[in-house]
Amino acid sequence: MDKISLDKETILNATEEIIRRFGPDKANITDVAKLLKVSHAAIYRYYNGKTDLWNAVTERWLTRLHAPSNNILKEDSPADVKLSNLLESFVEAKHNSAINDPEMFANYIKLAQRSMEVIKNGIEEGINSIEKVIVQGITEGIFFTESPYQEARSVYLATSVFIHPNTFEDPDRKQNIESVINLLIKGLKNSNK
């Protein structure tokens, strides 16, 4: 492969393929370089080692996972409807990933455990998205709170239980998600706080 055609996206695609093939524990930069037919030094021009590259793969996965949520933020709908859609999108994203690509999902769970800064950024992004919808709801007169960020953090924490793989097989999962989301939205609508 030409050095000209080597870029971060190409490296990330190859890294995903190597991780899929060998798993995150056994895969390494040399494997990625071999797949791309470049020296491992060429990879180091773009990433400062395995941790940096694996973090970039994890970050890209989270970005893909949250893409539908970003579209929900652009919807022209009342804040309570938008918040319900956003929360359902958050909790279903990983569930769908686990169903549609279980091998990569398992690999990403391992990667995520090592990429705590990337995960913290992803959580903060989720909280900020919820906060935007809560602020919209305050403006619309639907939600009542003096601390949109703190409420958003609480909403995120309350629904985060449903992103854990242990909940994926629960036959009542969908009903439980809806119940929690409805309860949270009722709480935000309560003007007697």
Automatic annotation (TrEMBL):
Cross-referenced InterPro entries: Homeodomain-like_sf, HTH_TetR, TetR_C_27
Record feature DNA-binding region, as residue ranges: 28-47
Pfam families per UniProt: TetR_C_27, TetR_N
Domain HTH tetR-type per the UniProt entry, residue ranges: 5-65
Record has DNA-binding as a keyword: yes
Entries under PROSITE patterns matching the protein: HTH_TETR_2
Keywords associated with the record: DNA-binding
Entry keyword annotation includes DNA-binding: yes
GO MF entries: DNA binding
Protein name as annotated: HTH tetR-type domain-containing protein
